[in-house]
Amino acid sequence: MLYLSSCKKTEPSKMSPTENSPNSLVSSRIHPPLALLGSSCRLQLITGTSSTDPAIYRMASLFDYILLVATDILNPKNRESEQSNGLLPTVPEEELKEPDYIPIAGNIKIYSLKELRKATRNFCPGNKLGQGSFGCVYLGKLKNGEKVAIKVLSSESRQGMKEFLNELGVISNVTHPNLVKLLGCCADGGQKMLVYNFIENNSLAQILFGNSHSGIRLDWRTRVKICIGIAEGLAYLHEEVRPPIVHRDIKASNILLDRNLNPKIADFGLAKLFPGNMTHISTRVAGTLGYLAPEYAIRGQLTKKADVYSFGVLLLEIVSGRCHTDPTLPLEDQYLLEKVWMLYESGDLESIIDKTLQRDFDAEEAHRLLKIGLLCTQDATKIRPSMSTIAKMLKYECAVGDKIMRPGLITDVMDLKVRAVEPIQLSPSMSPSVDNSQVSTLALAGSTLVENP
């Protein structure tokens, strides 16, 4: 197991004595060539065997290469020749702090910048698949003919390096049919890139909210299949991975669909490893408003049930064909969850089901899915079911029940946290991701989170 840390300038003679303590991640089992280099970004090999294990030395050349590449990120001289391409990220001073050690699987491939430039035709705009809060994604074709999706982290993102290391660490250690597959990474020339297998049909958001430009129509059975797949992928992260993983940014744009319209959960840049002996983690608020659980948005208390809440909102979107927030609608109709709750109380859930289905759906099943969505978004975390239970509900393996209380609504968050700030105009399709270290003001204009200066 390889441990990749964020960057810190050190000298071998000044290594902290605690780094060799039995309880630290960096122990006497570190592969010597990696442990003693001690410069800028450090890679540690943590195994259950002694440092003399031949397997460690067979892997050493690869690990040493990664170390040298990671070190190059902080070397201005090495970066000068790459500045002209406009892609090169810089590492902010804030990131040159105590490293967070992240486990990296040893089977990831290291790609050179030259190789990825060739694969994307020098990052041609025509190869761009999309753009998110942390950078762009390009279609690439490797020399063996394999198509890949290359995520280039933005040079303007303050959290770029941290997200790069985090996503690399989290996704390299998990495998599930409903998760994207990480093939490798590139840190050559100071770049921060992740290489994934190419998913043919792009994101669920583009198909669901994209005015049918994709040409793909999601029929009812396909929507149910997508819901089940996402639920099973999250159940795997929460209950089968050790330590469990909380995604923190489940939303339609982070669900990719393959050629058979099977869902793949993507974008693990905000994911958190969740210690099994803790009831919650107090952390910075990160994610997308409209999908954020109230206890997390207000108090920064993160549990697996935050993902459950986000999934509930996504489930309502899939059934209704509507985005969680639509500022073009009358105020009483703008927030999807609030609207669904109102219709549930009035016994008129069917009126929210996507009209493009043209009544070609199972009404009873649609009502069932909407009720599951409301259960997932209950204000009290203990009432929200686990993701494995949700998957069973979706597959009719357990009952849903009718004891549904008022969910935690986005308007409740507004009442508690909104202060006088200048409104921000957003298009209906925008759902920006945020990562705020000192959230004291929550300004909702569409679905954006604003940090107090």
TrEMBL record:
Alphabetized Gene3D superfamilies for the sequence: Phosphorylase Kinase, domain 1, Transferase(Phosphotransferase) domain 1
Domain Protein kinase: 123-387
Example of a GO MF term: protein serine/threonine kinase activity
Alphabetized UniProt keyword annotations: ATP-binding, Glycoprotein, Kinase, Membrane, Nucleotide-binding, Phosphoprotein, Receptor, Repeat, Serine/threonine-protein kinase, Signal, Transferase, Transmembrane, Transmembrane helix
Protein's membrane topology: Single-pass membrane protein
Presence of the UniProt keyword Chloroplast in the record: no
Pfam families on file: PK_Tyr_Ser-Thr
Binding residues for ATP: K151
One annotated Gene Ontology cellular component of this protein: membrane
Subcellular localization(s) per the UniProt record: Membrane
UniProt feature, compositional bias: Polar residues: 13-25
Keyword Magnesium: no
Region annotation (Disordered) ranges: 1-25
Annotated family: Belongs to the protein kinase superfamily.
Name assigned to this protein: Protein kinase domain-containing protein
Species whose genome carries this gene: Eragrostis curvula
